[in-house]
Amino acid sequence: MTELVLVRHARTAANEADLLQGRRSDGPVLAGALTGPDWVGRGLPVPDAYYSSPQLRAQQTAVHLFPGRVFHVDERLAERDLGDLDGMAAEALRSDHPDLAARLAGDARFVPPAGESALEVAARFRSFLRDLPAGVDTVGCVTHGALIAIVLRLLAGTRERSRIRNLEAVRLRLVAPDAVVPVQLVTADEQVVRA
């Protein structure tokens, strides 16, 4: 049975400033954000195939986590398009537009102005799963917090962790062509939360 390991990219200036960082934001990771161990050093299973979101922050993280490996860049692993909300301070959204913030966080059908819904993100990830090559046991992916949270909520049916921190890893088992179950969460400081 195929396992997927999804890792959120390393910290960026937008993360430090608590800005909404969607698909349109493409800043680099912070200097010093990639000083920890690589994929194997974190105790994650060695992948048969390596993938990254097209965003710079994800690719920089993939280069660090997969040293010397060729990884495939796949658009379907990109961050959620937050449209007009991209770059907005998260606190300003919560305080000035609480209804909008609640819909963005909890309504899978909600489409931010000029953006995409969580259902659309889940659909493109399902497409990614269906296109995985046959015979691959473990897939390593560097992607984004919102995508991972959406996968956990809409494909795995869990609300355990709605916020994935930078460099946290989530191990999932593919149980159907487009359905997954959570196996393990490895925090950024390499603590196994659930096995």
UniProtKB/TrEMBL annotation:
Q: Does the keyword Hydrolase apply?
A: yes
* EC number from the UniProt entry: 3.1.3.-
Q: Which UniProt keywords apply?
A: Hydrolase
Instruction: Keyword check for Hydrolase, yes or no.
Output: yes
Name the CDD domains on file. HP_PGM_like
Molecular-function annotations in GO = phosphatase activity
Name the source's superkingdom: Bacteria
What is this protein's name? Histidine phosphatase family protein
Supply the source organism for this entry.
Tsukamurella strandjordii
Q: Top-down, what is the taxonomic lineage of the species of origin? A: Bacteria, Bacillati, Actinomycetota, Actinomycetes, Mycobacteriales
